[in-house]
Specification:
The complex is a heterodimer of chains A (423) and B (525). Helices cover 43% and strands 13% of the residues of chain A. Chain A has 17 helices and 11 strands. In chain A, a hairpin with a 5-residue loop joins strand 5 (237-244) and strand 6 (250-255). The longest helix of chain A is centred in the C-terminal third of the chain and has 18 residues, at 346-363. Chain A is globular. Chain B is α+β, with helices and mostly antiparallel strands. A 7-stranded mixed β-sheet of chain B has the order 15-14-20-19-18-16-17, sandwiched between helices. A 5-stranded mixed β-sheet of chain B has the order 2-1-5-3-4, sandwiched between helices. The two termini of chain B are 27 Å apart. The chains are: A alpha/beta (423), B alpha+beta (525).
Chain lengths: 423, 525
């Protein structure tokens, strides 16, 4: 398989403009500025079938087309580099090793919606990544890829790197906007949607790092080539961050539709130490866990994951072998979401911590009959009833852990102790 | 305004484009339960109590942020909605201390009301509750209990959108989220206590009112704030014949949902005084109690011999009182110089949201009733100080204490041949009088005020006056009878009918039809 996203990351000094250009970098931008209108660019991206890589999988070209052309307000493009979903570290690799691909993609997106100010909102903890990105921005500006009259085209764009203060919720599109505006990282009530009322109330597109980094190749090589990769509805390649009980953890670029089991066993070397696979979370900690015996026909694309009862999400693959206590795992995930809930709306604010407390009790031998149904009821009461998708992100894994490992949870409750001897 | 039709719970409702579901429902008399939504504040959508089911939408939607569409079908009572509402109630009570027995909000608390209406189940929460700030003093009038708080942010949004003073914000995350003052700020803007009124639970309470009385023992009376001539509509809450609190009463033509702090607490100054319970008359050695008959005769004969005559009435006297006062004084001396007490002070931008610069709620009305002279109150006062008058009748204002010219007024009053003072208590001014007549305060009166904008609004008596005092209008009427006129009023309403007949701007108004929202005379046909 030809690498699209990871095509540069292993080249020495891949983060420099010189190396990036030597690998065909900024060719797509030159092509667009010379010969394509914003509308043509949007059509090209639509034709590629590229879907947003932040987790929701919304078609990228379509998202751009929602931005009103006749708005008198400034328009903004924001590169969401707040990657904070546990088990997800693919954007970080791109930021550190191929920052110019992100920049070029961001400039293309900005051109597509006629924006003259773009932001990269980077998670505060990613200090090294922000240093690399700022270096790349400076180099690009120096070389005329940013600023006034880019490549003599008459198109102007300023690109501003903004470091977040460190909250999971600021990766949520509208939480990010609130944070960037200088407020608390509170998701906004929708409607209105960012395409019309985004940053400072102006039309805004927020795209994930990986989505934007896919664009230069798509434009350079043509939408048709990209659309030829992957499945009918899930086009192209996707990055997966693999961690946990796996022989070869790391970031992998995989063609959409690749068999999940084969990926884990062959590409990633399977579960080490002769242990059996107990479960795997395919799309970051907010996605429902799959049991080891549920993987047979699952493929790595949006539709197949959904059919299996989970989601592709951010592509954060967390592998757990048989030594893992699933109650403890559920508790750990619940604790994360309880800690990160922004507290704005009622079900998430109160429900996340409640679930965490119940999981903690069960793990510590103080579980009670009825606790499991109570967790399912709480998670059900959160799901779909909150301002932003965070509520679902906290409720889905809780529900999935209890439903898929119910016997293990019940054993904890009846035996009043953890029944999995951790190794 | 494009009209459109939708159905709510199967009922066809007509409204206009741009309205939200919660607004359209309210217009149709359907109350969708809510905490964070407030008609005068920006939408927050955080409490999730107003979730409703809308046909063709897979998820429940918040009624406060969903705009109506033609043909939309809304369910506010479907099983899915009721379950979501019950769930929100359960979540809200997870960390709530359930300290209703010592909570001032009890009896007017949305948590209590909605628990009864939408939950009524034992909590399934058996974990340890999270603790939060208790008894945080936010400012001179407001105290915060973080454990009772449901984080609806009404207070924060009020301070952003209405006063724009932004003293409060939300800090921390998750179920540790709490309302807090910004560093080095105090919640002391001139409208600060409104956050207590809009707090749907017992998180923000009024330091002046708290622990005084259970709200269900209050006798509520709709009335008008006597603080200034804005004429904010209020509800007087009284307990054991004392005022326990003022609450704003909604009137979009006047004060919307708010009142200012000065107005809210002015009843202390105006009512918590040692009351006069008998007329007083000056004899050698000072003022001594006397009966009404003697006092009124003395007052009348003293004033009749006192031309050139001056009369001043308080801006807190009603139209009915002012009307009779003007009649009486002109009956005694057609040249009598009459004025309404009036004094302005500078206002800050935040004060200007509600306050008028005066402290005379009915100065406009009293003038329209004929208590008016050339040159206004300042000129009248100048003449008084210059010794232009021989006799004076001062009603309801302690001129000596209220004005910076106190000493000059004192010597001017001392030079008068005759002074009658009518007030609820023995003021410094009254101590100089020849006759003192015990009257009532604003909370004991029925009648009308006309605000700065000319709107006629109704006062209602919340308290019973003390034995021995008379209503001001009754004193004027009795004195006029003493002077030989036939006066047959027995209620302020009857006086108002005369006003409607005789004062052109009030023509066509009817006392009964003024109602609780007041009336703008020019609106009447």
């Amino acid at each position: 398989m030809e690498k699209i996203l990871l095509r540069n990351v292993d080249i020495p000094d891949s983060h420099t403009l010189a190396v990036y250009k030597s690998r065909g970098g900024y060719r797509a931008l030159e092509k667009v500025l010379r010969a394509m209108s914003p509308e043509q660019l949007i059509e090209e991206v639509k034709a590629s079938g590229l879907r947003g890589r932040g987790g929701a999988g919304f078609p990228a070209g379509m998202k751009w087309s929602f931005v009103p052309k006749d708005s008198p307000k400034p328009k903004y493009v924001i590169c969401n580099a707040d990657e904070s979903e546990p088990g997800t570290f693919k954007d970080r690799l791109l930021m550190e090793r191929d920052p110019h691909a992100i920049l070029e993609g961001t400039i293309l997106a900005a051109y597509a919606i006629r924006s003259h100010t773009a932001f990269i909102y980077i998670r505060g903890e990613l200090a090294f990544g922000s240093k690399v990105l700022q270096g790349a921005i400076d180099e690009a500006a120096q070389a005329g890829y940013l600023g006034k009259n880019i490549l003599g085209s008459g198109y102007d764009l300023d690109l501003i790197l903004h470091r977040g203060a460190g909250a999971y919720i600021c990766g949520e599109e509208t939480g990010l906007l609130s944070s960037l505006e200088g407020g608390r990282g509170w998701p906004k009530v929708k409607p209105p949607f960012p395409a019309t009322h985004g940053l400072f109330g102006c039309p805004t597109v927020v795209n994930n790092v990986e989505t934007l980094a896919s664009l230069p190749w798509i434009i350079d090589q043509g939408a048709a080539r990209y659309a030829a990769i992957g499945t009918e509805k899930s086009k192209g390649t996707k990055l997966f961050s693999v961690s946990g009980h796996i022989s070869k953890p790391g970031v992998y670029e995989v063609e959409m539709g690749y068999p999940f089991k084969r990926f884990l066993e062959e590409d990633c070397g399977g579960v080490p130490n002769g242990r059996k696979l107990k479960g795997v979370i395919p799309g970051g900690s907010s996605m429902p866990v799959l049991r080891g015996d549920e993987l047979e026909s699952v493929r790595m694309d949006y539709e197949s994951m959904q059919a299996a009862g989970t989601l592709l999400g951010s592509g954060g693959v967390i592998v757990m072998d048989e030594s893992t206590c699933m109650v403890k795992a559920a508790w750990n995930v619940a604790r994360f979401y309880a800690h990160e809930s922004c507290g704005q709306c009622t079900p998430c604010r109160e429900g996340c911590h409640w679930m965490e407390k119940i999981f903690g009790r069960i793990e510590n031998g103080q579980g009670e009959k009825g606790d499991l149904d109570l967790v399912l009821s709480i998670s059900g009461n959160i799901t779909g009833n909150t301002i932003c998708p965070f509520g679902d992100a906290a409720a889905w894994p809780a529900t999935a852990f209890v439903k898929k490992y119910r016997e293990e949870f019940e054993a904890h409750i009846t035996q009043k102790k953890c029944v999995v001897s951790s190794a | 305004m494009e009209p459109l039709k939708l159905t709510i719970d199967g009922r066809e409702v007509t409204t206009v484009k741009g309205k939200t579901v919660i607004e359209a429902a309210a217009e149709a008399g359907i109350d969708i339960p809510h905490y964070c939504y407030h008609p005068k504040l920006p939408i927050a959508g955080n409490c999730r109590m107003c979730l409703v089911e809308i046909e063709k939408m897979p998820r429940l939607q918040i009624a406060c942020n969903t705009q109506v569409n033609e043909g939309m079908a809304v369910q506010t009572q479907s099983p899915k909605v009721l379950e979501a509402r019950r769930a929100v109630m359960e979540f809200l009570l997870v960390n709530h201390p359930l300290d209703c027995p010592i909570c001032d909000q009890a009896g007017e608390c949305r948590l209590q009301d909605y628990y009864m209406a939408h939950d009524l189940k034992a909590s399934r929460f058996e974990e340890r509750k999270e603790h939060d700030y208790k008894r945080e003093i936010f400012g001179p009038h407001v105290v915060f209990d973080g454990e009772r708080c449901i984080n609806c942010t009404r207070c924060v949004r009020f301070l952003q959108a209405v006063t724009r003073t932004e003293e409060l914000t939300v800090v921390d995350r998750g179920d540790h989220s709490t309302i807090a003052l910004f560093p080095d700020r105090v919640l002391d803007n001139p409208l600060s206590a409104n956050v207590v009124d809009i707090c749907p639970v017992g998180a923000l309470t009024d330091r002046d009112f708290r622990f005084k009385v259970r709200v269900w023992y209050l006798k509520d009376t709709p009335s008008i704030c006597p603080g200034c001539s804005t004429g904010c509509n209020i509800t007087i809450g009284a307990y054991q014949n004392r005022i326990a609190r003022f609450k704003p009463r909604v009137n979009e033509e006047v004060n919307s949902h708010w009142i200012c702090d000065e107005g809210r607490y002015c009843f202390h100054r105006l009512t918590e005084v040692e009351r006069l319970t008998s007329p007083l008359i000056r004899q050698e050695g000072g003022l001594v109690p006397t009966d009404w008959e003697t006092a009124l005769q003395a007052a009348l004969s003293g004033l009749s011999a006192g031309a050139p005559l001056a009369g001043v009435i308080s801006g807190r006297n009603t139209n009915e009182e002012a009307f009779l006062f003007a009649r009486l004084m002109r009956r005694i001396s057609s040249e009598a110089a009459l004025e309404v007490f009036y004094q302005e002070r500078p206002l800050t931008e935040v004060e200007k949201i509600l306050k008028s610069p005066d402290r005379s709620p009915n100065f406009r009305g009293a003038r329209e009733m004929g208590v008016i002279s050339n040159g206004g109150f300042d000129s009248w006062l100048g003449q008084l100080i210059e010794g232009k008058f021989r006799g004076a009748y001062i009603v309801g204002e302690d001129l000596l204490s209220a004005l910076p010219e106190g000493e000059k007024i004192k010597s001017a009053l001392a030079r008068l041949s005759f002074l009658v003072v009518q007030d609820s208590h023995l003021t410094a001014t009254a101590e100089l009088a020849h006759v003192v007549l015990p009257a009532t305060n604003f909370a004991e009166k029925e009648g009308t005020y006309t605000n700065r904008e000319g709107r006629v609004q109704k006062l209602n008596a919340a308290l019973v006056p003390p034995e021995g005092a008379l209503q001001d209008w009754e004193i004027f009427a009795r004195m006029q009878r003493e002077a030989g006129d036939r006066v047959s009023y027995s209620t302020p309403g009857q006086i108002f009918q005369t006003i409607a007949n005789e004062v052109p701007r009030y023509g066509g108004l009817s006392y009964l039809r003024i109602g609780e929202q007041g009336a703008q005379p020019s609106d009447q046909t």
